[in-house]
Amino acid sequence: MKSDCIVIGAGYSGLAAASLLAKQGFSCTLLEKHTSIGGCASFFRRMKFSFDVGASTLSGVQKHQPLGKLFDALQISPELKHLDPAMIIYLDDKKIIRYQDKQQWIQEAESHFGKKGQAGFWNDIYAIDNAIWELMDKNPEFPPSNIKDIFTIASRLSNLKALPLLVQLFRPMDILLEKHGLHHNALFKRFINEQLLISTQSFSDSAPIVTGAMGLAYPSETYYPIGGIVKPAQLMLDSFRKHNGALIMKEEIVSIKNTPSGEYAVYTAKGNEYTCTYLISSIPIWNLSEITSDSSIQPKAQSYAQSFPKAWGAFTVYFAVESDFMPQSVYNQVHTKSTIPHCEGDSFFMTYSMSDDLKKAPQGWHTITISTHTEASQWFDIPPEIYEQKKQETLTFIMNEVHRIFPELNHAQKEYIEAGTPVTFAHYTGRHRGFVGGIPHSVETGFLGLPRNNDGLKNFYHIGDTAFPGQGTPAVIMSAMNAVQKIVKHKHTDI
Ligand SMILES: Cc1cc2nc3c(=O)[nH]c(=O)nc-3n(C[C@H](O)[C@H](O)[C@H](O)COP(=O)(O)OP(=O)(O)OC[C@H]3O[C@@H](n4cnc5c(N)ncnc54)[C@H](O)[C@@H]3O)c2cc1C
Q1: Distance between CA 254 and CA 156 in Å, rounded?
Q2: Which of 206, 211, 349, 453 is deepest in the core (most CB within 10 A)?
Q3: What residue owns the CA closest to ligand 1's atom 50?
Q4: DSSP secondary structure string, 59-74?
Q5: pLDDT for 293-323, tens place per residue?
Q6: Mean pLDDT, residues 186-200
Q7: Residue 342 in contact with residue 390, Cβ under 8 Å?
Q8: Ligand 1 centre and the CA of 366: distance in Å?
Q9: Is-contact 425 40, C-beta < 8 A?
Q10: Can you give the residue ranges of every domain in the chain?
């Protein structure tokens, strides 16, 4: 089967790229290995309940931001509930409220962490965050893939004021904390580190100030997708199909080759072959290096896979609960009493479905998804009984902490209490060793060395969370939009 474009993987990035390309008139085939779409932002059902598998929170939805732009371009309107406060953080005996309004948030932060340095620190964070969104909005070449992109960005006069930001790419967040006299504020550092971990996947000693600022600003603006985070993905799919796109499920790509005529051929586990002019891969770099022996793509994919040998894994907990209780926010970050067994962070993130979200749970019930960071490799290559024992220990610890923070749920009836590990993610999303959340941002890995959309490989584009130095669904959408823009431009200059 031949089409203009093949997109590998129907997660958020693959769906975004495929739907935009189809809307632009490209014939497009989207190949997905699993039985449902969404990848790390998918769902599963248990009788009358629907659970988000991993991602649950949307941000970057404003008109100038990635999801806002995508929804506009596709003319789709997912049902989203804007939340203010955006999130609640439970730290020791404190309940910290992330208000959307900056001044209100600064007052809240001062009331918990002391007046010293808070206003200056948060003013800097929001200023950097705004400047980066503006830079990305005006420069589709950002982040640059090659020298030409760098020159294009540099030649725009409007970018001059963003120059001071450059240095902040190479300095860790600790420097900004020090500037505001906050580096010895132990409680604030605990707060900052766990907020950074859920956004940039790094701590303040290594998260660059630029990506760290974006990661610290995002918890102030969140949106709850009614029915689950897969719902916007389903609208992308509707748009894709409306524009004649073909989605083929249960079609796992096992090999990619460049044909003598300059086209790409992909081969599937079922023995099918598809060919195309433009190949867009949304699978992580580690997977890409495993499925290609193509002499043009393989060396680059392998060198990236070797340069970034590790990423985080996720430990997840799911359950349904019958209760009238509704926490102050659906999004809750809970600092635990001690480090979670077999996990690295000292907090977990809990999403509690809204009382009136009857697409997730019937009246009087809620579905809950909890996630935390774990070192992925420890879950593989161990005897099944050890695996089960570790899983139970972590699950029990997290459930006890849920009951400590929300005693209202202690005696409530619960159904389908289940847990997922990196092995679960590897199984369902195919992600190598269950690595999720992309490449952790750090000053050590450097910004310019991160994998790019296109490394000069003719008509081959890499998108998704290992192809863009940003966070979560906004970042992967951005990676998809950048690739589509390049493909459209290429097609027009090629004619
Ligand atoms: C526990 C957890 C919580 C998170 N929370 C949030 C959050 O609240 N908000 C947020 O914005 N982000 C969050 N994220 C991050 C977000 O989920 C990801 O950044 C994003 O969903 C990644 O999308 P993707 O398209 O790059 O990759 P994926 O979602 O991994 O999609 C890749 C797709 O490719 C398919 N595939 C893989 N291999 C093959 C193959 N060989 N052939 C064909 N198909 C293949 C997979 O089945 C999958 O559908 C979270 C992630 C996790 C794990």
Answers
A1: 42
A2: 211
A3: 55
A4: ---STTSHHHHHHHHH
A5: 777 777 888 888 888 888 999 999 999 999 9
A6: 94
A7: yes
A8: 24
A9: yes
A10: 2-40+228-309+438-494, 118-219
Name the closest-CA residue to atom 46, ligand 1. 429
Q: Tokens 């879950």, residue?
A: 379
Ligand 1 centroid from CA 207, angstroms: 22
394 pLDDT above the threshold of 60: yes
The CATH architecture of the domain made up of 2-40+228-309+438-494 is: 3-Layer(bba) Sandwich (3.50)
Q: Tell which atom from ligand 1 comes closest to the C-alpha of 467.
A: 26
Q: Give 323-380 pLDDT, tens digit per residue.
A: 999 999 999 999 999 999 999 889 999 999 999 999 999 999 999 999 999 999 999 9
Are 431 and 9 contacting, i.e. CB atoms less than 8 angstroms apart? Answer: no
Q: How far is CA 345 from CA 194, 379, 453, in A?
A: 7, 16, 30
Does pLDDT of 212 surpass 90?
yes
Return the ligand 1 atom nearest residue 479 CA. 26
Q: Which structure tokens are listed for 212?
A: 């760290």
Give percent above pLDDT 90 in the chain. Answer: 75
pLDDT digits (tens, 9 = 90+) for 148-188: 777 777 777 676 777 777 788 889 999 999 999 999 999 99
Q: Is the CB of 431 under 6 A from ligand 1?
A: yes
Residue found by looking up tokens 């907990």 in the block: 317
Average pLDDT over residues 414-426: 98
Residue 146's pLDDT is what? Answer: 66
SS3 content of the chain, % helix, strand, coil (to 5): 40, 20, 35
For ligand 1, atom 4, name the residue with the nearest CA.
55
Strand 253-258, strand 264-268: pairing: antiparallel
Which residue intervals of 430-494 are DSSP H helices? Answer: 472-494
pLDDT of residue 494 exceeding 90, the answer is no
Question: Which residue's CA is the closest to the ligand 1 atom numbered 26?
Answer: 464
Tokens 């690295």 locate to: 344
Give the count of alpha carbons within 13 A of 402, CB side only: 26
Any atom of ligand 1 within 6 Å of the Cβ of 287: yes
Tell me the two tokens of residue 98.
Answer: 């992330």
Q: Which atom of ligand 1 sits closest to the CA of residue 40?
A: 29
